[in-house]
Write a structure and sequence with these properties.
With 322 residues, the protein is of the alpha+beta class. It has two domains: 4-112, Probable inorganic polyphosphate/atp-NAD kinase, domain 1 (Rossmann fold, 3-Layer(aba) Sandwich); 121-296, Tumour Suppressor Smad4. The protein contains nine helices and 13 strands. It has helices at 16-27, 40-50, 62-74, 93-97, 103-112, 150-156, 160-166, 169-178, 247-251; strands spanning 4-8, 31-34, 55-60, 82-87, 114-126, 140-142, 145-149, 185-191, 196-209, 229-235, 259-264, 266-279, 282-302. Strands 1, 2, 3, 4, 5, 6, 7, 8, 9, 10, 11, 12 and 13 form a 13-stranded mixed β-sheet that branches. A hairpin with a 4-residue loop joins strand 8 and strand 9 (196-209). It is globular, with a radius of gyration of 19 Å. It comes from Halogeometricum pallidum JCM 14848. GO terms for molecular function: ATP binding; kinase activity. Residues 1-20 are annotated as: Disordered.
Length: 322
């Protein structure tokens, strides 16, 4: 039996790339295990890690990849297992970030690509009125981003049919439709080891990135080896017309007065009422949330064009030392 496992979501995207991934995996001797329901990819990855698999890859979108990483993490084998992604979903943001350009290329990367120690984001949340229960809740990782506010709520309302038919454009259209009715969210945001104040007031969005930057930062990929989270709080501006050409780019340009940006290793968020948070496109609801960076937590196969230092950082990257 092979110790190279591919966890495949056959429902990702339009299904054609998933079919292609299955064919190539079987030709190259991978053990293909299909997920057919929520959290099944997590359990399949957990089983693969428990068996001592040397490679566990996710064939699907960012949600499938998140489940696979969570599964390996629950077995405590992120450091020993090589993780990989075969992009078969709608957006495939994380695959872009690690320079995996397609299904065929993904298998070349798994077999011959560099291994890097990449950071993970980790969150705990509770919907209780008091934040005291945060320390007792289980932590959940995210690879790309944790988002709250307009983008998260619009994404939650984007149907699977629209994503299959329109791809990434479905998220854009859903966001524009929500701008006219979104009322903003009251947040108190603190960061760092002393919980220094970052933001208090009404926000349109809270964006916390591990693998990605946000509009206005000049690049899509964040530094995933600096042990820090990229945090952007966007102040609510009800009068802005998002349907105007270039409005979103101007709204999120670097240095804009309505943006608060931080790079931190720890973040605490209190909302006035429970809100939806998107973790790599999967949703949780909470009134209080704690986010932390996990430096170098996972061993990941990356493409030849992957840049370990795409933005300025005070901390060096970490080549794989395994």
């Amino acid at each position: 039996m092979t110790d190279r496992i591919l966890v495949l979501n056959p429902r990702s995207g339009d299904g054609r790339r998933s079919d292609r991934a299955r064919t190539i995996a079987e030709e190259r001797g991978y053990d293909v295990r299909e997920s057919h329901g929520k959290d099944e990819a997590l359990e399949l990855a957990r089983e693969a890690a428990r068996e001592g698999a040397s490679v566990v890859a996710a064939a699907g979108g960012d949600g499938t990849l998140n489940e696979v990483v969570r599964g390996v993490d629950r077995e405590g084998r992120l450091g020993e297992t090589t993780l990989g992604v075969v992009p078969c979903g709608t957006g495939n943001d994380f695959a872009d970030n690690v320079a995996v350009r397609g299904v065929e290329h993904a298998f070349d990367v798994l077999e011959n690509g560099r291994r890097r120690r990449l950071d993970l984001g980790s969150v705990r949340w509770t919907a209780e009125e008091s934040a005291d229960a945060l320390g007792e809740t289980p932590a959940r990782p995210f690879l790309n981003s944790c988002a709250c506010g307009l983008t998260a709520e619009a994404s939650a309302r984007t149907s699977p049919e629209a994503k299959r038919r329109l791809g990434v454009l479905a998220y854009v259209l859903s966001t524009l439709q929500r701008t006219r009715t979104f009322e903003g969210l009251q947040l108190d945001v603190r960061a760092g080891p002393r919980n220094d104040p970052v933001w208090t007031g009404e926000a349109l969005m809270l964006l916390v990135g591990n693998g990605r930057c946000f509009p206005g930062e000049g690049m899509r990929q964040a530094n995933m080896e600096d042990g820090l989270l990229n945090v952007v709080v966007v102040r609510n501006r009800p009068g802005l017309n998002y349907l105007t050409d270039g409005a979103v780019d101007r709204f999120l340009r670097r240095g804009a007065s309505h943006l608060t940006r931080q790079k931190v290793d720890h973040l605490e968020i209190d909302a006035s009422v429970p809100r939806q948070f998107s973790l790599d496109g999967e949703f949780v609801e909470g009134r209080h949330l704690r986010a932390d960076a996990r430096p170098g937590a996972m061993r990941f196969a990356v493409g030849e064009a992957y840049d370990p230092s795409p933005v300025d950082s005070t901390r060096p990257g970490r080549p794989d030392d395994a």
